[in-house]
Design a protein that fits this description.
The complex is a heterodimer of chains A (about 375) and B (about 170). Chain A has about 375 residues and is mainly alpha-helical. Chain A has helices spanning about 10-35, 35-65, 80-85, 85-95, 100-105, 115-120, 125-155, 160-190, 200-225, 235-265, 270-280, 285-300, 305-310, 310-335, 345-365, 380-385.
Chain lengths: ~375, ~170
């Protein structure tokens, strides 16, 4: 079987126009509405984190399946693999934050005596912040690149050593990722509220990433099937992706609640300030977050058929994609922008621009190779998989 | 023995069994039951079984358990024994969530297990009468209804070329 996605000029033009229009509208809205600088930078951070999360979630999906030598996912492994090709771009976009540090992170320029920030200054200082950023991305990019190259080798050669090597890369990635995903969440998101801390925050962000990535994969598979590709992705594969989306939406809620109840119960002013701000100034967003990421996927994906029908599943995945954008919004905006925050033209246009760029990068990567890895030892199992 | 008219076919492996089930059903004979040492993929479709209704039992059991757990706490802490703790209001919903969650799972699980036992008629005084000692180990059994014109010889002729261990 040989099937290759064609990234035609038409797609490229449409996505290019989407990205450029989004960018121009964003710039125009910045000049016309003159939002505070922190709102502009918070938007950049939000979209960086959102699309980075989709890419990293894809890498995690691959690593966790490969270390278990899972068979079922091999038919669709090119999809998450293509998602990881966005990581170098994500690195550049995250690097831009250098110019917005003082608008986003008040620990970078505090004046006078601040015992809490002085206590954290060994970790939260500008040089170390960027050294860590470099280390995270160096590891992620190197390992995902090695994983993609290795799959390419497996495409061309029947040597089983390329298959065995996947487990090594998967193991290395998981160990590195376990530490860095948590630490990067402290750096880029939690340090916005530098006086506040939560020990479960890293895992909360990580699960959000994974759910976003699963939802994105489902929507992408739905699209590719619609335009006539991926005939070999069966209802059973879709069913399993649906089960994962359902399960990890519930798990996300579990972590959300674990964070909330401990802070609510402990009632320590240093900690409760985080939720007081969100429940009083961002009340609608606060409840919308739970509705889109828990209530809707939980009830809409509970029945068997709802996870098997890709049209229904993809529409729920679309809602979850919006939901996790909202989730990042409520993590970033109250601390970084405060009362000047809002969802308006700058937010939507920049997200549209990022989506255009993201799709160009991943679809280009997807089109560069066949959609199926014929020499994968598990491919037959996956093609006849029953959920 | 379920009854003396049951034809029992013993298999060593799942694949011959699945082939045999297809052939037996094509021949018009009726399969009463299939006993396997582990869940076999594709068996439900091979037998054209209807989907189990047990998820509904689980859903309503869970719903009942959740409402019961929440309702009980709400009643205790506001009506029966109002007690202020941690400076929280009497009806403080977040603190009820863990118990509500656990009750939901407990009732969903127990109601499904109970429904299964009742439906399978597994009463406490149920005697274990193995149709074939092999079912407690590694054998696959297909039970065919032997009333009417179906006989062991007829089944045997249908299953020519498929690895059967025993037919009786």
């Amino acid at each position: 079987m040989e099937e290759q996605f064609k990234f035609t000029k038409q797609y490229r033009n449409i996505l290019g126009i989407v990205a450029i229009t989004g960018l121009l509208v964003f710039m125009a809205s910045v000049f016309i509405f003159k939002p505070v600088a922190s709102r502009v930078w918070a938007n950049v951070l939000l979209n960086n984190q959102y699309f980075l999360g989709i890419a990293l979630g894809g890498a995690f999906f691959l690593a966790v399946h490969r270390i278990a030598w899972s068979g079922w996912h091999t038919a669709l492994q090119r999809i998450p693999e293509a998602l990881t090709s966005f990581l170098p771009i994500a690195f550049l976009l995250m690097g831009i934050l250098y110019f917005g540090m003082h608008d986003l992170y008040h620990w970078s320029h505090y004046e006078g005596h601040d015992p809490i920030l002085e206590g954290k200054s060994a970790w939260l200082n500008m040089p170390f912040f960027f050294i860590r950023m470099l280390v995270y991305f160096a590891g992620w990019i190197a390992l995902t690149r090695a994983m993609r190259k290795n799959t390419d080798m497996l495409q061309d050669s029947e040597d089983v050593k390329y298959h065995n090597r996947r487990k090594v890369f998967a193991g290395l990635f998981l160990v590195f990722f376990a530490v860095t995903v948590s630490a990067s969440a402290w750096d880029w998101l939690m340090s916005i509220d530098a006086h506040w801390y939560s020990t479960i925050y890293g895992w909360y962000v990580f699960i959000g990433m994974f759910v976003t990535s699963l939802a994105f994969m489902i929507v992408l598979i739905w699209f590719l099937k619609r335009v006539g590709y991926l005939e070999f992705i069966r209802t059973d594969h879709v069913h399993d992706l649906g089960k994962l989306l359902f399960a990890f939406s519930v798990f996300w809620t579990y972590l959300w609640f674990s964070q909330y109840i401990l802070i609510w119960y402990g009632h320590i002013p240093e900690e409760t300030v985080y939720f007081i701000q969100r429940r009083e100034d961002f009340e609608f967003i606060f409840w919308l977050n739970l509705a889109l990421n828990f209530i809707i996927p939980f009830f809409a994906l509970m029945k068997l058929q709802s996870k098997k029908q890709i049209n229904w599943l993809a529409s729920i995945a679309g809602i979850v994609l919006i939901g996790h954008w909202i989730d990042y919004y409520q993590m970033i905006m109250p601390g970084a922008v405060g009362e000047n925050a809002g969802i308006g033209v700058p937010e939507i246009s920049l997200t549209v621009a990022y989506l255009g760029i993201f799709l160009i990068v991943i679809l280009k990567s997807l089109a560069s190779r066949p959609l199926i890895v014929n020499n994968d030892p598990f491919i037959e199992e996956s093609l006849h998989y029953e959920s | 023995m379920e009854n003396s008219n049951t034809i029992t076919i013993v298999f060593e492996d799942e694949q011959p069994m699945l082939q045999a089930i297809k052939k037996i059903r094509e021949s018009g004979a009726e399969i009463i039951d299939v006993l396997t040492p582990f869940p076999v993929h594709g068996l439900d479709t091979a037998l054209s079984m209807k989907r189990s209704r047990i998820p509904w039992v689980g859903f309503f059991g869970g719903l009942f358990g959740g409402l019961l757990g929440f309702g009980f706490q709400a009643w205790v802490f506001t009506v029966d024994y109002p007690l202020v703790f941690g400076g929280k209001p009497l009806l403080s919903v977040p603190s009820f969530i863990p118990v509500t969650f656990e009750c939901t799972i407990l009732f969903a699980g127990l109601s499904m297990a109970g429904a299964f036992l009742i439906k399978s008629k597994l009463k406490p005084d149920k005697k274990f009468e193995p149709i074939d000692p092999g079912i407690t180990d590694d054998k696959f059994l297909v039970l065919v209804d032997g009333t009417g014109d179906t006989s062991a010889d007829k089944i045997k002729s249908v299953l020519v070329g498929i690895g059967i261990t025993e037919i009786k």
